[in-house]
Sequence to fold (414 residues):
Amino acid sequence: MKRYRWLLGCCLFLSIGMLWAADEPDLRMLQQKAAQSRDMEGYVGVCKYLYQTEENPELLLLYADSIHQLATKSKKPEQLVEYYIWASEGNFIKGDFQQGYALKRKAIALAEKAGLKFAISQSCCDMGYYCNVDARYDSARYYFRKGLEAGEDLSEAGEACRTMLTNYASSFLFEGKTDSALVYTIRASERSAADKDTAMLIENLNQLGTIYRRKKDLENCITNFEQALHLCELRGNHNAVAFIYGNIATAYCDWNRPGDAIPFSEKAVEYALKTGNKRRIGTCYVNLGAIQTRLVQMRAEGIATLLKAIPILEEVNDRRLLCDAYNYLVNAYRMDGNLNQAMYYLQKLDKLAHEMQTDAERFRYYQAKAGLLQESKKYTEAIIYYRRIIDMLRSGYKDARDYEHYKRLADCYL
Fold:
């Protein structure tokens, strides 16, 4: 029961739901089945589908309420736990983390009271995931340890445990502690290999590639990405293929080789389009546009690609990815000398700045704002944001081109 969340350069995995293959039933078929059966299986089937698409949280909450009605009649704790799990997911997708956390905590507490170890493991796995997304890394690791303890002797919890081991390593990766991330990801990959979980091994290899990218080890970075890519191409997993192609492109960009990165990023778009997932497509367009704008001869094409992504992201209400799109447009127009248009998108970005949840997102925001302020000769204001960048670097945040920020700060002081 794994789940992919697509973030540029790193990944997290959630335990509920399966990736839906092309031959899985569509929403209408699942709704018809639920309407006929009016049982837990039917309602959960719809919830899983809606959870995967992330495009209709209100409908997900409606079907979660149907589960609640069943639980109220049966008075079975396992059914009430199921309701809390899906209701929390609906709120998380809506962006209401406070309510999502509250419901997830209810699921854990009730599962503990009823002695439902599998449900404890499952819910802690999910709770830890969202704490990671919310940059609450210590809390994430607390829930992962709790979930692993509950599931360690349960054969049915093996997949959730492998997910938690991977996300435990991810918490260090997002926190900028790459050495710890490397140690725990290697452990997770060994567990995945021993359990013959090829799908999770792919994710472990992908995460190793990301870690080596952060450690500026291009050879090991590309090697792990290519191993992951080979495995998931054999499985016909278009979602994972798109993501890994995007990560390879990012690695080449870190080594200032955007020309080499573009074919991989174009491949990511190609596979994303095959999935039909608008959020995935929007993400890959943003990543491709960001790379294209780094090349003078492709900057106009890159801007067009980014502008293509915006209505898609607005449709699925993905404000965090909109931040990325605006961020790259600010940089592109600035490099093109169009400071007025760059300032227009910076103002849009400023309005969404509160949506940023990870250090990587904030780092890119500070970069874009500092660069535009410097270009606009507002050196005193630019220094404020360059100082924030430097503070993040000194606190352990890794950036392959860190030296540039020190140089730009020096230029502003001068």
